[in-house]
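Researcher: I've been going back and forth with a colleague about how N-alpha-acetyltransferase 40 might be arranged in three dimensions. Neither of us has a model we trust, so I'd like an independent prediction. The organism is Perkinsus olseni, in case that matters for your notes. Sequence below.
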Amino acid sequence: MGRGKKGSKAPTSRNAVTLSTGDVLDAARELKELPVSLGPTVTFHRGAKLPKGLLDRIIDITRDNMKTSYDAALGWDNWDDHIKRDEMSHKLSRFLLRWREGATDSRTAEDLVAFVHFRFERADDDDQQSVLYVYEIQVVSSYQRRGIGRELMELVEEVATQLGIDLVMLTCLKNRPEGLAFYKTKLGYTLHPSSPEACDGPGQRRRPQTVKGFFSGAHDKFMERPVLNGMVLLNCVVYGAWRCTALSFRVTPREGERLRRFLMNNFTCSWDDIMTKGRWHQSILYGFSHITFPHFVFNTWLLYFIGRPLYDRLANEKEFGIVYFSGLFAGAVAETLACRNRATPLVGASSGVMALLASLSVLEPNRWWYMLFPIPGATLSSMQLADINLAVHLVAAPAVLYRQFSRRFPPRYGSNVAYVGHLAGIFAGYAATK
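Model: Here is an independent structure prediction for N-alpha-acetyltransferase 40. You can compare it with whatever you and your colleague have in mind.
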């Protein structure tokens, strides 16, 4: 059930932060300190920068308090540590941590007794109001009924008031009547129109009904991961351009040839391009180019689903870009150097994707993946997946080099798969991960 409480606009005072309506969410997300007094036992943190031990403690508290309710409300054994970790370590996640009294000098994870997890978002309705959305508020069982939950919620509401946020919202499971009573009776929260109970049918959620609301929501979704989503979009645009060349040759051959030449001169890579002609930009842009539909779908799908958790885990877009583009560049140099006589130019995002997987295996080694192939339903951790990938390429890359330089094979004999470039991308991903 969604619950909302109207937040008043920021008052005029030296301690208030005045933000325009259009900038309020972006400015709130950039704050390194909150415009409220937290006191000696409460600290403010960004989810993406929480130490692993502290994040583990937060997840343990949430599991102890909520697993039974999650399973009862959403299905047997519905609780998933990995999903909760992704949610809490997201770059937009913010935390207020409540520490044990007296633990001020050398705090450890065990000194954490309560927390509130929230984000600054936009309401999913026609008004598109700014929202401080409370994802979790949890108190260790031995510290419950001491007013700590009220203390944290009042701090959250004060943050919203000072920043000029329109609403404070949260979701509460109906099978926790004590929680519903706390929010409704003690804090005065009411049912928000976006709650499933306020919609036309069970399980349905209200959607923006205007064109403006739709595009505003789409923009917000895109800006959650602008670099990653931009890469996916560019992959789609370049693949569409390659398809247009095939169509143009049938209608206007001259224009089709001009478009093909532009793509060949910018979105493919070969030894002659980067070493002879000095077109070094092609050592990066080739990674956005895919000729065949299966190649495009597979690489773009991997880019998004491997890139998304890594993007949320890294501190900023710059670090994500360094990992991905270093993989593309290393793959281009290694593949064109080792297979300079290959008949076809180099295209595809594979080397960059290999770098992302290598980086993710270092930062999130215990993340589990459900396989679609070659064994549907099998599960592998990021570390296991990266190790298998590395082993395959340590065997395949030397085999390609042998066939490339051996006199037993024709001069241009090789593989359509850039195993050498993939291997270079893997090593670049490891090297670029701090």
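Researcher: What would you highlight for our discussion?
Model: I'd start with this: DSSP finds 15 helices and nine strands in the chain. After that, consider the following. The mean pLDDT is 83.
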